[in-house]
Write a structure and sequence with these properties.
Elements (H helix, E strand, L loop, with lengths): L8 E5 L10 H9 L3 E5 L8 H14 L9 E6 L1 H13 L4 E7 L7 H8 L4 H8 L21 E6 L7 H4 L10 H4 L6 E5 L10 H13 L9
Parallel strand pairs: 1-2, 1-3, 3-4, 4-5, 5-6
Helix pairs in contact: 2-3, 4-5
């Protein structure tokens, strides 16, 4: 029996075109607060969401810190949230705890629509983003009614993407509109002034992530 069996485990899933290194600060914070962590590097550009959820399942069950008795939580960024949803729906883990998603395209993104529909950009988009590229569209028929667990969603509303104002309406993080991060069944949702690509490094995002894992809700924000 390892020491981690007495703890809760947090599975960290990075976004597409990113790596496990982007989740290291969050992983280190969670470790300091007593969680065992499993920061998974997965081949985001090589498979669809279904196959990526199988890959994640294998990584979890092969981890020396994992047992069926340990409660597993998820902290995800961007497409990592979709992978967590597919994993939970398909594997139905009995030891599931809480899930925190950072900037998830839960109902897709108009930016993916634009890249996919623009004739000159479409082949580049599909080549770079791989088989999951079409699953990031707003019209992709994802699983429905799958959120039956404590889910908290953090959306950003700052952008460094110069193309975003031409493609996205309303509040957005440069890639995913705030409204697209929401999903039926979530128990809390907050907006933090952070950009999509770097929100996992934001101190407020990290603090709220930890708070949700401990309290099943986000810390009340002061009105600006």
């Amino acid at each position: 029996m390892t020491e981690a069996e007495n703890k809760e485990m947090v599975i960290l899933l990075h976004g597409i075109l990113r790596s496990k290194h982007d989740m290291l600060l969050l992983s280190n914070l969670l470790k300091k607060h007593g969680y065992a962590t499993l920061n998974i590097l997965y081949p985001s550009r090589e498979h669809n969401l279904e196959d990526l959820s199988d890959f994640v399942d294998k990584k979890i069950t092969e981890s020396p810190d994992y047992t069926e008795k340990i409660k597993i939580n998820f902290v995800t960024h961007s497409m990592g949230g979709l992978i967590a949803r597919y994993y939970i729906t398909r594997k139905k883990p009995d030891n599931l705890g809480k899930v925190v998603m950072l900037g998830p395209p839960n109902t897709g993104s108009e930016f993916a629509d634009w890249l996919s529909d623009t004739k000159i950009l479409s082949p580049i988009f599909k080549a770079v983003f791989g088989p999951a590229s079409e699953q990031l569209r707003t019209d992709y028929p994802h699983i429905d009614g799958d959120i039956t667990y404590p889910l908290g969603v953090i959306a950003g509303n700052r952008s460094i993407n110069p193309l975003a104002p031409w493609v996205l309406d309303g509040e957005h993080d440069g890639v995913v509109p705030v409204e697209r991060t929401k999903i039926e069944g979530m128990i809390d949702h907050i907006i933090i002034p952070a950009t999509h690509s770097f929100m996992m490094f934001n101190n407020d995002v990290m603090e709220q992530t930890l708070y949700f894992l401990k309290n099943s809700r986000f810390k009340k924000q002061q009105k600006q």
